[in-house]
Amino acid sequence: MSTNTSSFIDPDLMKGVEVFRNILKKARAIIALTGAGVSAESGVPTFRGSGGLWRTYQATDLATPQAFRKDPVLVWQFYHYRRELVFSKSPNPAHEALARFEKECKSSGKQFTLITQNVDGLHQRAGSENVIELHGSLYKVRCTECNVISDNHNSPVCAGLAKETTSLDELPHCGRPGCGGLLRPHIVWFGESLEPEVIEKARKALDNCDCCLVVGTSSVVYPAAMFAPELARRLVPVAEFNIQTTPETGNFQFVFQGPAVGSTGADTFE
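Below the sequence we write its predicted structure tokens.
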């Protein structure tokens, strides 16, 4: 017995999907803004709300420069946990769809920029290339003395973090001759500003944008929360893909929400 699944699909929703797809086809400079909701579908915790505890600590209390100055061992243990957790996860269909879409844009001479608030690198692992990481990366470290930033995909970051307890001397340190400063995760912590060059790159992409996808973001973390509303005020078509409404939902021309389109809307823009 066959079932006509089209009877379960909201016709107004499908009309909106088709209108958006036509706009997307004509666009020449597209931006995707992504947030924690994308990686949550890979099993990466958001560390917000009820999921905000690590051991007995609020994760947000550890993501501050003050916490690192007070107890760098504890903070590094937290980020070691996060790194190892993400190592065990894989990109999901949303990551993969965005990576495929970027390739399609390149092949047709379009610009595509992915601006993410995520720090887990899953977009790159899925194949995305033109990625702006607003909040840094779990797989980069920065020296607290010379400020040099370097990639670090070691598992663990250093041998000391593989142990249940460790000391300050066993934490990762800068390998540059004459430095040896303590390394920190290259993450924008609460109370810190985004790097000026990162903001500049994002702003250039936003200035040239003629279509925007907002995928899996709560639209409450600034300055990223301002980006899509600013585009909407310029009458740039903005489509929000999320499992729930956000404070900015009412400002966007297209909203794809709930199980009918999926929380990522991955097949809506393909």
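Residues 146 and 176 are 9 Å apart (CA to CA).
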